[in-house]
Design brief:
Layout lengths: L3 E2 L4 E3 L4 H4 L9 H7 L6 H4 L14 H16 L3 E3 L5 E8 L2 E11 H6 L2 E2 L6 H14 L1 E2 L3 E5 L3 H10 L6 E4 L5 E7 L2 H14 L3 E5 L1 H17 L11 E8 L5 E2 L1 E5 L7 H8 L3 E7 L10 E6 L2 E7 L14 H11 L13 E5 L3 H10 L5 E4 L5 H10 L9 E2 L10 E2 L2
Parallel strand pairs: 6-11, 8-12
Antiparallel strand pairs: 1-5, 2-3, 4-5, 4-10, 5-12, 7-21, 8-11, 9-10, 13-20, 14-18, 14-19, 15-17, 16-17, 16-19
Length: 413
């Protein structure tokens, strides 16, 4: 079972949560962050390269120093205030007609090492190293990770009771998504939540934040090895997560754009596709994939439906059945020669929140030659893959809304 505990969060002072909170560090590039950040924005802490003119590379030593300075200043100015006791929190996100309710808590770093916290993607060491540096220099988890867990009726009932009262803060962000936050300060309720997680919830599933999770686990290990008086009760053994019941989450499509057709003209490319797909010309009207193994292609101003032919995928293999696998194997690798999605510069990825219009824009601009839209992975598929110990291909899942950073911060001492 998972190990969890409440914590005394550092939170925005009254009335400034909307102004202080920010998108996650990896959603915006530096110039986008600089344009968005107001005076109190957490982006000055998570992306402090924006405080330099011109903007510095994010790995510059001066950027790390600025992160520490800004984190200290935000506390000294009273923009971030420390809770006096350990609490659990509820964080609700609303996108359109759908609301998801997460419990903000601390998970144990050892659960990641042992596989109780389950991942479905590989991480890159350079990104882990960068996040590890940020956690170490701040001695804090500035941004939470995003976990899912199998639904528990009692936890759902507890959350429903908590959110029946007014939140401590609530606002709508620049994307039109709603964010609300509650504090659970009842000691009996805190004890019961801990008991349910530690006796009935057998795993957490990393939905978003694989690099932050890995970095947090590495910082915990480093602090243990550096502390001759380590007891196992220290705060650094835990890291901050927002945990949602799986039934409330929805995965969006994660699409691909490619720079060229590996020397083929349009007709030759479409002919090559027809060996493994039923290819249908849909004209100039946007075409959305309708089911598993059906893809959308945008090429030279026209949309096409691509339906994988029988026998081109393995429905009995949790990885082989994924459309990202089918597309990678039959198109990106076999036809276009794109073999490593993590390193090949001829391919880029577009989250489904940007819509098919973004795919069309990037192709029409001449930046890219073709775009592929995929049918989204389901939460059941993600859980099955994580349980099996398998790893999804890169850039398979896109969760939305993203967690807002700055609503809670976890100090490691």
């Amino acid at each position: 079972m998972v190990r969890v505990k409440p914590f005394a969060a550092l939170r925005p002072s009254v009335g400034i949560a909307a102004e202080l909170s920010s998108p996650p560090y990896d959603v915006l590039d530096s110039l986008e962050a600089k344009a968005l950040a107001g005076e109190k924005s957490l982006l000055h802490i998570t992306k402090p390269e924006i405080d330099f003119d011109p903007v510095l590379p994010d790995h510059d030593a001066r950027v790390y120093e600025k992160a520490v300075e800004n984190f200290r200043l935000w506390q000294e100015r009273g923009w971030l205030v420390q809770d006096t006791s350990p609490y659990y929190y509820v964080y609700a996100q609303t996108m359109g007609e759908r609301t998801q309710y997460g419990i903000v808590l601390c998970a144990h770093t050892d659960d990641y090492a042992s596989g109780i916290i389950k991942k479905h993607e590989l991480t890159r060491k350079d990104k882990e190293d960068d996040r590890m540096i940020h956690v170490k220099i701040q001695n804090a988890n500035i941004e939470p990770v995003f976990f899912a867990y199998r639904d528990d009726e009692e936890l759902n009932a507890i959350v429903a009771s908590v959110v029946s009262s007014a939140p401590v803060n609530g606002f709508t962000d620049e994307n039109g998504f709603g964010h609300r936050f509650w504090v659970i300060d009842d000691k009996a309720l805190i004890s019961r939540i801990t008991s349910i997680f530690t006796t009935r919830v057998d795993a957490f599933y990393v939905a978003d934040g694989h690099h932050r999770t890995a970095a947090a686990a590495r910082v915990g290990e480093w602090k243990r090895s550096s502390n001759p008086l380590h007891t196992g009760e220290e705060e650094y053994n835990y890291f901050m997560a927002v945990c949602f019941p799986a039934s409330q989450l929805k995965i969006m499509d994660y699409n691909r754009v490619v720079k060229d057709l590996a020397g083929l003209d349009d007709n030759a490319f479409l002919k090559a596709l027809s060996e493994n797909f039923t290819v249908e010309d849909k004209g100039e009207t946007e075409y959305v994939p309708s089911s598993l193994h059906n893809f959308s292609l945008y090429l030279s101003g026209r949309w096409y439906s691509l339906t994988a032919l029988p026998g081109r995928y393995d429905d009995n293999d949790p990885i082989g059945v994924l459309d990202v696998t089918v597309l990678s194997r039959l198109v990106l690798d076999r036809i276009l020669g794109i073999k490593d999605l993590r390193t090949d510069k001829r391919i880029d990825f577009v989250g489904g929140i940007r819509g098919l219009g973004e795919l069309k824009r990037r192709v029409d601009s001449g930046e890219m030659k073709a775009a592929f839209a995929l049918y989204p992975v389901s939460m059941n598929q993600l859980v099955d893959i994580a349980d099996s110990g398998s790893i999804m291909p890169p850039k398979t899942t896109w969760f939305e809304p993203k967690l807002r950073s700055g609503l809670a911060i976890h100090k490691l001492d």
